[in-house]
Write a structure and sequence with these properties.
Rossmann fold, 5-stranded parallel β-sheet, two-stranded antiparallel sheet, 7 strands, globular
Length: 510
C-alpha cells in the first residue's frame, strides 16, 4: 500500500471534508506554523494567534478521530519555516509515494504548490469542499459578459440553492432590500453586548514574541476573544441569529464610537478558516427567520444572506478570474505613502481615529468602516493601492488575499477601473455623519469645506473628482457630482482645491 502525505493549510480547518470520513494508517497529515506565512505581510498579533490556536485545535481533533498527523510548531528545531522544504523533508523521512493537497485559496500558495514537482512522488489535489460556487462555475456564468455584475451572480446562487425563494422567484417578489438597510443607530439605542470568548493563549503569544515576529495591534493573551474552534464558532453563530439577526439589516451600515460590533455576526474568521461553511451559516440564519418571522423581517435576513452567498462568493470568483494581474492594478496611478497614524490611530479625524483604533484593538472593523471611512480616505488622499492592500491584509483577523484584495483594490480603491464596483465609493463628511455618531465630537467641522478646522473629507472629495475628471466625468452613476462641481464659481473651486492641497501636504498631521 502506498504511503500518502496530505497537507492541510491554516485556512483549511474543515472537519466536514471528505478526507476525514475514515482513517487510514497509510495516510499521514501535516500542518505547519511557518515564517513563510507569518512574515509575507506584517500581521495583527490577534490574527496570528487566532490561526495558530485554531490550527492546533484542529490537529488535536484529527488525532482524537484516529488520524495520523505531524504538527510543526513555529519554534520546532526541525521546522525549516518553508512550506516546500518542510514537505520535502517529510516525504524523504516517511517514505512517501503520494502527496495530496486541497486547492489553496491564495494565488501565491497555489502557484507554489503547482510548481512543486518532487521526483518519484505522485501529486494530486482536490477541492476544499467549502465554497458554494466553484471558480469554473463563476467563469461560465460571466463568460462573454463585459461586466461582472454582482446582483446577477447573487440571484443565480439564490436560485441554485433555493434560498429565500418561492419556486423560481424570490420570496415576496423582491430580490434585494439594500435600500431598507441604511439606518443610523438612534441616539439612545444600545446594541446587544457582543459574545466574546475568554481563552488563555499566553503560550502562543510568548512563542510569537520569542521568535521576534513583527506584528501590529494589541491583544490580551489571558482573555482571547475570538472563536478558534468549531464549537466556539457554532456558539457565535447561534448567538448571532438569536440576538442580532433581527436588527442586522437595519443597522448593518451604522457606525458608533462606543460600539465596535453593533449587530454584526463577526463570523468571517470562522468562515475564512473553514471552521464553518457558508451554506450551514446561511441555512441556520434562514431557519431562525422562518421560525421567527414575527421578530425578523425579510430585509434583515436578506441583507445577511447577500453578504454570505452574494458578496463573499462573488469576490472569490473575481479573484480567480483576474489574478495575478489584479494585484498590480492602479487605475488612478495613486502613489502617496500611507500616513504613519494608520499604525496607531493618532489622528484628529474622529471617524478614522475610531475605525483605525478599533481595527488595532480588535483586528476587526465592519464593512462600512473599512469601505466608507478608512478606504474612502485612502482613495481621496491618493494612497498607493499596494500600501492599502498591505495594511488591510495585515490588520484584519479575517483577511486572506482572495477576499481582501478584491474588496480593497477593487471595491474600495477602484484601482481595478470598475471590475468590481460601477463607481468609486467616495463621500464627503455628509455620508459619514448620516451613518455614524463620529462627527459631533470631532476636532474638525463636518459643515465646513474650507478654512480653520474644515473637515478634510469635504475638500478632498471635490479634489478627487477634479483630479480624475478625465476618467470619471462620463460615468453615469456619478454625473450629478460633476454637475454640482462644474456649477461652482471658479474662485470657490480654487479655494476648495487649495484647502485640499494643504491637507495632502500635511497628511501626517491631520
Amino acid at each position: 500500500m502506498k504511503k500518502t502525505l496530505r497537507l492541510i493549510l491554516g485556512d483549511q480547518l474543515n472537519q466536514q471534508h471528505s478526507w476525514f470520513e475514515s482513517t487510514d494508517e497509510n495516510i499521514l497529515y501535516v500542518m505547519m506554523e511557518i515564517r513563510q506565512e507569518t512574515d509575507y505581510v506584517r500581521h495583527h498579533i490577534q490574527k496570528i494567534i487566532a490561526f495558530f490556536t485554531a490550527m492546533r485545535a484542529f490537529s488535536e481533533y484529527l488525532e482524537r478521530c484516529g488520524h495520523q498527523i505531524i504538527y510543526l510548531k513555529l519554534g520546532d528545531k526541525n521546522n525549516t519555516q518553508s512550506l516546500i522544504k518542510n514537505i520535502d523533508k517529510l516525504i524523504q523521512s516517511n517514505d512517501i509515494q503520494v502527496f495530496e493537497y486541497q486547492e489553496p485559496d491564495e494565488y501565491r500558495l497555489s502557484e507554489q504548490l503547482k510548481n512543486y514537482k518532487p521526483s518519484a512522488v505522485k501529486i494530486s489535489f482536490c477541492s476544499t469542499e467549502h465554497f458554494m460556487i466553484s471558480s469554473t462555475e463563476f467563469g461560465d456564468f460571466f463568460k462573454g459578459k463585459k461586466t461582472f455584475l454582482m446582483e446577477n451572480f447573487y440571484r443565480m446562487v439564490r436560485k441554485k440553492y433555493g434560498i429565500l425563494m418561492e419556486g423560481n422567484e424570490p420570496y415576496t417578489g423582491q430580490w434585494n432590500f439594500d435600500s431598507d438597510n441604511r439606518k443610523k443607530l438612534p441616539a439612545n439605542h444600545r446594541p446587544v453586548e457582543p459574545l466574546t470568548f475568554d481563552n488563555d493563549v499566553s503560550g502562543i503569544y510568548e512563542l510569537i514574541q520569542n521568535q521576534e515576529i513583527k506584528t501590529i495591534g494589541k491583544v490580551n493573551p489571558k482573555a482571547f476573544i475570538w472563536p478558534t474552534n468549531r464549537a466556539e464558532s457554532l456558539q457565535l453563530l447561534a448567538f448571532f441569529v438569536e440576538n442580532c439577526l433581527e436588527n442586522f439589516g437595519n443597522f448593518e451600515d451604522a457606525m458608533h464610537p462606543s460600539y465596535w460590533s453593533i449587530y454584526h455576526s463577526r463570523l468571517s474568521f470562522s468562515l475564512n478558516s473553514k471552521l464553518l461553511s457558508p451554506l450551514e451559516v446561511v441555512n441556520c440564519a434562514v431557519k431562525f427567520w422562518e421560525d421567527n418571522q414575527d421578530r425578523v423581517s425579510i430585509s434583515q435576513i436578506e441583507g445577511f444572506v447577500r453578504q454570505i452567498i452574494g458578496w463573499r462568493e462573488y469576490m472569490r470568483g473575481i479573484y480567480w478570474a483576474k489574478m495575478p494581474d489584479y494585484e498590480s492594478l492602479n487605475y488612478f496611478n495613486q502613489d502617496t505613502k500611507l500616513p504613519d497614524w494608520f499604525w496607531n490611530g493618532e489622528t484628529k479625524m474622529n471617524c478614522l481615529k475610531h475605525s483605525i483604533g478599533q481595527s488595532l484593538d480588535y483586528a476587526y472593523a465592519h464593512h462600512i468602516q473599512r469601505l466608507m471611512v478608512i478606504g474612502n480616505f485612502t482613495l481621496l488622499a491618493g494612497i498607493h493601492p499596494d500600501e492599502v492592500d498591505e495594511w488591510y491584509l495585515g490588520v484584519y483577523i479575517d483577511a486572506i488575499q482572495w477576499v481582501e484584495i478584491t474588496n480593497t483594490r477593487g471595491m474600495s480603491q477602484y484601482a481595478d477601473g470598475g471590475i468590481v464596483g460601477s463607481k468609486p465609493y467616495v463621500s464627503s463628511a455628509n455620508y459619514i455623519d448620516k451613518m455614524s455618531h463620529y462627527c459631533g465630537t470631532c476636532f474638525y467641522d463636518k459643515s465646513k469645506t474650507v478654512g480653520h478646522r474644515a473637515c478634510p473629507f469635504n475638500s478632498l472629495y471635490w479634489n478627487f473628482y477634479d483630479r480624475h475628471a478625465d476618467k470619471l466625468s462620463k460615468n453615469p452613476r456619478i454625473g450629478m457630482a460633476y454637475v454640482t462641481w462644474n456649477k461652482m464659481p471658479s474662485e470657490q473651486k480654487a479655494e476648495i482645491l487649495a484647502q485640499a492641497e494643504i491637507y495632502l501636504n500635511d497628511i501626517e498631521n491631520l
